[in-house]
Amino acid sequence: MSELEKLKSELKDLNAEYAKIKTLPPAERGQFGREMNAKKQSLLADIARAEEQAESENISPIDISAPSAPNQPIFSPKFGTKHPLMVELDRVTEIYADMGFDVMESLQLDDEFHMFDSLNFPKEHPARDGYDTFRTSENFIPPAHTSTMQHRALKKYKKCLEDGGQIAVVIPGRVFRNEDADATHEHTFYQCEGVFVSKNATMGQMFGVLKRFFETYYGQSLRIKTQPGYFPFTEPSAELLIEKPKSLGGKGGDWLEMLGCGMIHPNVLKTAGINPEIYHGFAWGGGIDRLAMLKYGLSDVRYFESGKLDFLEEF
Ligand code: DAH
To answer: How close is the Cα of 232 to the center of ligand 1, in Å?
Structure first.
Protein backbone atom coordinates (compact mmCIF):
# COMPACT_ATOMS: atom_id res chain seq x y z
CA MET A 1 0.00 0.00 0.00
CA SER A 2 1.39 3.39 -0.91
CA GLU A 3 1.76 6.20 1.59
CA LEU A 4 -1.18 7.99 0.04
CA GLU A 5 -3.47 4.95 0.17
CA LYS A 6 -2.54 4.39 3.82
CA LEU A 7 -3.46 7.98 4.71
CA LYS A 8 -6.73 7.73 2.84
CA SER A 9 -7.72 4.56 4.71
CA GLU A 10 -6.84 6.25 8.02
CA LEU A 11 -9.21 9.04 7.07
CA LYS A 12 -11.96 6.51 6.42
CA ASP A 13 -11.43 4.93 9.88
CA LEU A 14 -11.45 8.34 11.45
CA ASN A 15 -14.79 9.19 9.85
CA ALA A 16 -16.21 5.92 11.21
CA GLU A 17 -14.94 6.79 14.67
CA TYR A 18 -17.00 9.97 14.64
CA ALA A 19 -20.11 7.84 15.10
CA LYS A 20 -18.92 7.09 18.67
CA ILE A 21 -19.84 10.62 19.66
CA LYS A 22 -23.48 9.55 20.15
CA THR A 23 -22.52 6.94 22.77
CA LEU A 24 -20.66 9.46 24.96
CA PRO A 25 -22.17 11.40 27.87
CA PRO A 26 -23.00 14.94 26.66
CA ALA A 27 -20.30 16.50 28.87
CA GLU A 28 -17.52 14.60 27.06
CA ARG A 29 -18.79 15.15 23.54
CA GLY A 30 -17.24 18.64 23.07
CA GLN A 31 -13.75 17.47 24.01
CA PHE A 32 -14.08 14.37 21.80
CA GLY A 33 -15.24 16.44 18.80
CA ARG A 34 -12.34 18.89 19.09
CA GLU A 35 -9.79 16.08 19.23
CA MET A 36 -11.31 14.32 16.23
CA ASN A 37 -11.36 17.55 14.21
CA ALA A 38 -7.70 18.24 14.94
CA LYS A 39 -6.77 14.71 13.84
CA LYS A 40 -8.81 15.09 10.69
CA GLN A 41 -7.21 18.42 9.74
CA SER A 42 -3.72 17.03 10.14
CA LEU A 43 -4.63 13.92 8.10
CA LEU A 44 -6.09 16.05 5.30
CA ALA A 45 -2.89 18.13 5.18
CA ASP A 46 -0.79 14.93 4.99
CA ILE A 47 -2.98 13.62 2.16
CA ALA A 48 -2.62 16.87 0.16
CA ARG A 49 1.16 16.71 0.57
CA ALA A 50 1.28 13.05 -0.50
CA GLU A 51 -0.90 13.77 -3.54
CA GLU A 52 1.39 16.58 -4.67
CA GLN A 53 4.42 14.35 -4.28
CA ALA A 54 2.82 11.54 -6.31
CA GLU A 55 1.92 13.97 -9.07
CA SER A 56 5.44 15.34 -9.41
CA GLU A 57 6.86 11.81 -9.53
CA ASN A 58 4.63 11.06 -12.52
CA ILE A 59 5.99 13.90 -14.71
CA SER A 60 8.96 12.99 -16.83
CA PRO A 61 11.59 15.72 -16.89
CA ILE A 62 11.65 17.94 -20.01
CA ASP A 63 14.89 19.21 -21.47
CA ILE A 64 13.91 22.78 -22.31
CA SER A 65 17.10 23.32 -24.28
CA ALA A 66 16.30 20.50 -26.71
CA PRO A 67 16.02 21.92 -30.27
CA SER A 68 13.01 19.86 -31.36
CA ALA A 69 10.57 17.57 -29.66
CA PRO A 70 11.44 16.94 -26.02
CA ASN A 71 13.77 14.05 -25.45
CA GLN A 72 14.38 13.36 -29.13
CA PRO A 73 17.99 12.56 -29.87
CA ILE A 74 19.88 15.78 -30.62
CA PHE A 75 21.94 15.71 -33.80
CA SER A 76 25.09 17.80 -33.82
CA PRO A 77 23.76 21.23 -32.86
CA LYS A 78 24.63 23.99 -35.36
CA PHE A 79 24.30 27.65 -34.65
CA GLY A 80 23.47 30.05 -37.46
CA THR A 81 25.55 33.12 -38.16
CA LYS A 82 24.78 36.49 -39.65
CA HIS A 83 24.68 36.51 -43.45
CA PRO A 84 28.01 37.90 -44.76
CA LEU A 85 26.23 40.74 -46.56
CA MET A 86 24.52 41.81 -43.33
CA VAL A 87 27.89 41.86 -41.59
CA GLU A 88 29.27 44.12 -44.35
CA LEU A 89 26.18 46.29 -44.31
CA ASP A 90 26.60 46.89 -40.58
CA ARG A 91 30.27 47.70 -41.10
CA VAL A 92 29.44 50.19 -43.88
CA THR A 93 26.85 52.06 -41.83
CA GLU A 94 29.14 52.02 -38.81
CA ILE A 95 31.89 53.80 -40.78
CA TYR A 96 29.49 56.50 -41.96
CA ALA A 97 27.95 56.80 -38.49
CA ASP A 98 31.44 57.44 -37.09
CA MET A 99 31.71 60.33 -39.57
CA GLY A 100 28.47 61.77 -38.15
CA PHE A 101 25.88 60.36 -40.56
CA ASP A 102 22.52 59.25 -39.28
CA VAL A 103 21.26 55.85 -40.50
CA MET A 104 17.79 55.44 -41.97
CA GLU A 105 16.10 52.21 -42.99
CA SER A 106 14.86 51.74 -46.57
CA LEU A 107 11.70 50.10 -47.89
CA GLN A 108 11.45 46.91 -49.93
CA LEU A 109 8.33 48.00 -51.76
CA ASP A 110 7.96 51.46 -53.16
CA ASP A 111 6.07 53.46 -55.79
CA GLU A 112 6.51 55.35 -59.06
CA PHE A 113 6.80 58.69 -57.28
CA HIS A 114 9.75 57.73 -55.09
CA MET A 115 11.42 55.58 -57.77
CA PHE A 116 11.23 58.19 -60.52
CA ASP A 117 9.22 61.43 -60.15
CA SER A 118 10.80 62.63 -56.90
CA LEU A 119 14.21 61.97 -58.49
CA ASN A 120 13.64 64.25 -61.47
CA PHE A 121 13.19 61.50 -64.06
CA PRO A 122 11.19 63.21 -66.82
CA LYS A 123 7.85 61.49 -67.51
CA GLU A 124 8.10 58.84 -70.25
CA HIS A 125 11.88 59.36 -70.34
CA PRO A 126 13.99 56.38 -71.52
CA ALA A 127 16.12 56.73 -68.34
CA ARG A 128 13.17 55.11 -66.51
CA ASP A 129 13.77 51.95 -68.53
CA GLY A 130 17.45 51.94 -67.59
CA TYR A 131 16.65 50.64 -64.15
CA ASP A 132 15.01 47.34 -65.15
CA THR A 133 12.37 47.71 -62.50
CA PHE A 134 10.07 44.94 -61.37
CA ARG A 135 6.46 45.92 -60.83
CA THR A 136 3.66 44.29 -58.92
CA SER A 137 0.25 43.94 -60.58
CA GLU A 138 -0.88 46.89 -58.40
CA ASN A 139 1.99 48.95 -59.88
CA PHE A 140 4.14 49.02 -56.78
CA ILE A 141 7.88 48.92 -57.41
CA PRO A 142 10.41 46.88 -55.47
CA PRO A 143 13.09 49.61 -55.45
CA ALA A 144 15.79 49.29 -58.12
CA HIS A 145 18.10 51.55 -56.12
CA THR A 146 18.22 53.06 -52.65
CA SER A 147 17.85 56.53 -54.21
CA THR A 148 14.09 55.94 -53.80
CA MET A 149 14.69 56.98 -50.18
CA GLN A 150 16.25 60.35 -51.01
CA HIS A 151 12.98 62.27 -51.02
CA ARG A 152 11.95 60.76 -47.68
CA ALA A 153 15.34 61.51 -46.15
CA LEU A 154 15.27 65.12 -47.35
CA LYS A 155 11.78 65.63 -45.92
CA LYS A 156 12.54 63.85 -42.66
CA TYR A 157 15.69 65.86 -41.91
CA LYS A 158 14.67 69.20 -43.49
CA LYS A 159 14.16 70.61 -40.02
CA CYS A 160 17.91 70.23 -39.33
CA LEU A 161 18.54 72.80 -42.08
CA GLU A 162 15.92 75.16 -40.68
CA ASP A 163 17.61 74.82 -37.30
CA GLY A 164 20.92 75.96 -38.84
CA GLY A 165 22.42 72.44 -39.19
CA GLN A 166 22.83 70.06 -42.08
CA ILE A 167 21.37 66.84 -43.41
CA ALA A 168 23.77 63.89 -43.19
CA VAL A 169 22.21 60.47 -43.57
CA VAL A 170 23.00 57.07 -45.07
CA ILE A 171 20.35 54.57 -46.09
CA PRO A 172 21.31 50.94 -46.64
CA GLY A 173 18.76 48.77 -48.37
CA ARG A 174 17.87 45.77 -50.47
CA VAL A 175 17.25 46.50 -54.14
CA PHE A 176 15.87 44.52 -57.08
CA ARG A 177 16.45 44.57 -60.83
CA ASN A 178 14.74 42.61 -63.52
CA GLU A 179 17.86 41.51 -65.36
CA ASP A 180 19.64 38.28 -66.15
CA ALA A 181 21.92 37.14 -63.38
CA ASP A 182 25.56 36.43 -64.13
CA ALA A 183 28.80 36.48 -62.14
CA THR A 184 28.59 40.24 -61.64
CA HIS A 185 24.83 40.87 -61.76
CA GLU A 186 22.10 39.74 -59.41
CA HIS A 187 18.36 40.44 -59.44
CA THR A 188 18.57 41.13 -55.70
CA PHE A 189 21.42 43.00 -54.08
CA TYR A 190 22.22 45.65 -51.50
CA GLN A 191 23.14 49.29 -51.81
CA CYS A 192 23.96 52.09 -49.47
CA GLU A 193 22.77 55.59 -50.27
CA GLY A 194 24.25 58.76 -48.81
CA VAL A 195 22.68 62.20 -48.68
CA PHE A 196 24.33 65.37 -47.44
CA VAL A 197 22.84 68.89 -47.60
CA SER A 198 24.13 72.15 -46.17
CA LYS A 199 24.50 75.79 -47.21
CA ASN A 200 27.89 75.15 -48.75
CA ALA A 201 28.22 71.46 -49.66
CA THR A 202 30.74 70.83 -52.43
CA MET A 203 31.88 67.97 -54.63
CA GLY A 204 35.26 68.21 -52.91
CA GLN A 205 33.63 67.41 -49.56
CA MET A 206 31.87 64.48 -51.16
CA PHE A 207 35.08 62.98 -52.56
CA GLY A 208 36.70 63.52 -49.17
CA VAL A 209 33.91 61.60 -47.42
CA LEU A 210 34.01 58.78 -49.99
CA LYS A 211 37.79 58.43 -49.96
CA ARG A 212 37.73 58.25 -46.18
CA PHE A 213 34.98 55.64 -46.36
CA PHE A 214 36.84 53.34 -48.77
CA GLU A 215 40.12 53.70 -46.89
CA THR A 216 38.46 52.82 -43.60
CA TYR A 217 36.56 49.90 -45.10
CA TYR A 218 39.62 48.36 -46.76
CA GLY A 219 41.95 49.43 -43.95
CA GLN A 220 44.57 51.07 -46.16
CA SER A 221 45.18 54.25 -48.11
CA LEU A 222 43.72 54.19 -51.60
CA ARG A 223 43.68 56.27 -54.74
CA ILE A 224 40.34 57.36 -56.11
CA LYS A 225 39.34 58.91 -59.42
CA THR A 226 36.11 60.00 -61.00
CA GLN A 227 34.61 59.91 -64.42
CA PRO A 228 31.52 61.66 -65.73
CA GLY A 229 28.22 59.88 -65.25
CA TYR A 230 24.57 60.55 -65.90
CA PHE A 231 21.80 60.41 -63.35
CA PRO A 232 18.68 62.58 -63.62
CA PHE A 233 18.83 63.29 -59.88
CA THR A 234 22.32 64.78 -59.79
CA GLU A 235 23.98 67.63 -61.68
CA PRO A 236 26.84 67.23 -62.26
CA SER A 237 26.92 63.44 -61.96
CA ALA A 238 29.96 61.25 -61.58
CA GLU A 239 31.14 57.71 -61.10
CA LEU A 240 33.73 57.05 -58.45
CA LEU A 241 36.48 54.51 -59.00
CA ILE A 242 39.06 53.18 -56.60
CA GLU A 243 42.40 51.69 -57.47
CA LYS A 244 42.39 48.03 -56.59
CA PRO A 245 44.54 47.71 -53.46
CA LYS A 246 47.77 45.70 -53.90
CA SER A 247 46.92 43.66 -50.81
CA LEU A 248 43.73 42.57 -52.59
CA GLY A 249 45.47 41.49 -55.77
CA GLY A 250 45.75 44.85 -57.56
CA LYS A 251 48.74 45.30 -59.86
CA GLY A 252 48.56 49.09 -59.84
CA GLY A 253 46.35 51.00 -62.25
CA ASP A 254 43.37 48.58 -62.01
CA TRP A 255 40.45 50.93 -61.53
CA LEU A 256 37.17 49.62 -60.19
CA GLU A 257 33.92 51.53 -60.48
CA MET A 258 32.37 51.55 -57.02
CA LEU A 259 29.45 53.98 -57.02
CA GLY A 260 27.42 56.74 -58.65
CA CYS A 261 27.34 60.20 -57.13
CA GLY A 262 26.88 63.88 -57.75
CA MET A 263 25.47 67.18 -56.57
CA ILE A 264 21.76 66.77 -55.81
CA HIS A 265 19.69 68.24 -58.65
CA PRO A 266 17.88 71.47 -57.67
CA ASN A 267 14.56 69.89 -58.71
CA VAL A 268 15.06 67.04 -56.21
CA LEU A 269 15.63 69.55 -53.41
CA LYS A 270 12.66 71.65 -54.56
CA THR A 271 10.29 68.65 -54.65
CA ALA A 272 11.20 67.97 -51.01
CA GLY A 273 10.53 71.61 -50.08
CA ILE A 274 14.19 72.67 -49.78
CA ASN A 275 15.23 75.92 -51.44
CA PRO A 276 18.07 75.14 -53.91
CA GLU A 277 19.03 78.84 -53.96
CA ILE A 278 20.11 78.50 -50.32
CA TYR A 279 21.03 74.85 -49.84
CA HIS A 280 23.27 72.49 -51.79
CA GLY A 281 23.75 68.81 -51.40
CA PHE A 282 25.56 65.77 -52.64
CA ALA A 283 24.42 62.19 -52.80
CA TRP A 284 25.86 58.83 -53.71
CA GLY A 285 24.82 55.22 -53.95
CA GLY A 286 26.80 52.05 -54.41
CA GLY A 287 26.53 48.29 -54.10
CA ILE A 288 27.43 46.50 -50.90
CA ASP A 289 27.88 43.15 -52.66
CA ARG A 290 30.58 44.65 -54.84
CA LEU A 291 32.45 46.02 -51.82
CA ALA A 292 32.36 42.64 -50.13
CA MET A 293 33.38 40.73 -53.28
CA LEU A 294 36.55 42.79 -53.52
CA LYS A 295 37.25 42.47 -49.81
CA TYR A 296 36.95 38.68 -49.86
CA GLY A 297 38.23 38.09 -53.39
CA LEU A 298 34.94 36.54 -54.58
CA SER A 299 34.38 36.09 -58.27
CA ASP A 300 30.65 35.37 -58.37
CA VAL A 301 28.04 37.64 -56.80
CA ARG A 302 25.37 34.95 -57.06
CA TYR A 303 26.78 33.07 -54.08
CA PHE A 304 25.35 35.67 -51.71
CA GLU A 305 21.72 34.92 -52.55
CA SER A 306 22.30 31.23 -53.23
CA GLY A 307 21.69 29.89 -49.74
CA LYS A 308 24.71 27.59 -50.28
CA LEU A 309 25.71 26.66 -46.77
CA ASP A 310 29.29 25.68 -47.58
CA PHE A 311 29.80 29.19 -48.97
CA LEU A 312 28.04 30.97 -46.11
CA GLU A 313 29.86 28.91 -43.49
CA GLU A 314 33.19 30.26 -44.68
CA PHE A 315 32.37 33.61 -43.09
N1 DAH B 1 21.04 55.15 -57.75
C2 DAH B 1 22.16 55.06 -58.66
C3 DAH B 1 22.24 53.64 -59.19
O4 DAH B 1 21.83 52.72 -58.55
C5 DAH B 1 23.45 55.43 -57.98
C6 DAH B 1 23.48 56.86 -57.57
C7 DAH B 1 23.98 57.79 -58.43
C8 DAH B 1 23.02 57.26 -56.34
C9 DAH B 1 24.02 59.14 -58.08
C10 DAH B 1 23.06 58.60 -55.97
C11 DAH B 1 23.57 59.52 -56.85
O12 DAH B 1 22.62 59.05 -54.80
O13 DAH B 1 23.61 60.81 -56.48
O14 DAH B 1 22.72 53.44 -60.27
So the answer is: 9
